[in-house]
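User: Fold this; tokens only.

Assistant: Input:
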Amino acid sequence: MIVNLALVKKLFALVAGTFLALLLLPALPVFAQEISWSLKYDPRTFDPALVDEQSSEMVRFLTGGVLLRLNRVTQQIEPSLADRWTISPDGKLITFHLRDHLRFSDGSALTSADVVSTLQRVLNPATKAPVAEEFIDAKSVTVDAPDASTVRVHLSKRVVGIGKVFDEIAIEPANHPSQSKVTSGSFFVADYKNGEFVRLARNPYYWRRDAKGAQLPYLASIKLDILENRDQDELRFIRGQYQLIESVPPQNFSVLAQKAPHAVRDFGPSLNTEQMWFNQSPAASIPAFEKAWFTNKNFRNAISLALRRSDIARIAYDGHATPANGYISPANKIWYNQSLAPVQENINAALTALAKEGFRKNGATLVDRDGHPVTFSLLTNAGNHAREKTASLIQQDLAAIGIKVNVVTLDFPALIPHLTQALDYEAALLGLSNVEPDPSAMMNIWISSSPDHRWNPSEKTPATPWEGEIDRLMNAQAIAATDAERKRAVDRVQQIVAEQQPFIYLVYPNMLYAASPSLSNVQFSVLQPGIVSNIDFIKVGAK
């Protein structure tokens, strides 16, 4: 047999080239129409009524069917499980009309009885649902259903922007709250392995269809890996294992921009804040002299003055952040108080403020009037490089005025009990993700009786006159007759916070996203979740 060596070489080259090309293709998801990205930590709860952190919020958004949905791009309220709703002229009666033939993900019918049961559970003080704070006087709210498709919510007083509250309340079956196992949203929790992943499956009975009548969502499933190491996000995205990164760490953004320039986007300053605060709770298991420091306005202001926010933005966030001067970001153009002055970075002013309260230098060490060296631990979460760098910069800045800071990092699930139950920490450094721009959405942070009033949670009565004034102003803005009245109240709250520094705001991080070109219909938003807000329409492949 005669062998054509030239032909064999060509065939070998063709096969080898094809094999190499296949090796270089991005890895495809295991499941058809499945996409993957990561959560920073395990969801603390799958109970949608108890959500108070980002991982649980992401799962609730993807699985929870809600009466009304806040469009994260237009920032307008849109119908969802309720196809229409009305609010009485006095603002005290909201009537929802449910869509026809609604079903939960197990195929059972969804009626007004399920909505009433869900709302009553959320409003019950025993549930301790964070969203209940937004109803202003939740215990006086009543809910009834005149028929199977109508729900009425009776408020004791008008609540401005009340429609947005229902975006945070996932409707569950009346007979058994499901914790996302049976849902009325786009997906349901199909599998969960602690510390590994959450897998969501498409709800086959979801009500929504596209313009051509095809049932949504397009995706069959979503895999959310539990991934504390944010550097792995970048590697898995480049390999094609992930199709999205909801929040690109600043230190990885420039690398991704070089490797995948068409996949990344800096959306500018977010509504989110990074802040530190001191534990001011009377129940805190810390020495009395430290409590005296932390509850002292001049002490907190001195700490604020000593911190170089411009360095934090430049070094810790690689330039992808803006120095902060309050709890509302300038990206929130309607509610940001334009009259607030930028925070000074002034060591001499910090030492002057401390001297007013009897603090003095003993050599290189700052001591209080009784000679106690000023030192405290700063608790933050491990694995967040920007936050860990911020903590290091805070440590350096405060060393310049004689304060020793011991940085303590814990995994996020281990950190939370210290802040919410034991109250055995001295200071903390964390961020706050603001889902939407209306100030009423932050009622649970500012109302003194709230468990989320982080520096001194669950006060029976306001501990200070300024906290009492914030209570009054926040409640007043929530029921004000005009936007101008609301604006005056919210501007004053921002001024009080700037004066008192219960939270010492550091930076507003930029919104940094990555989305694979293999996906279509992805939209970006400054509101969380900023990259999957239209999850129903995202698909793998062309539009």
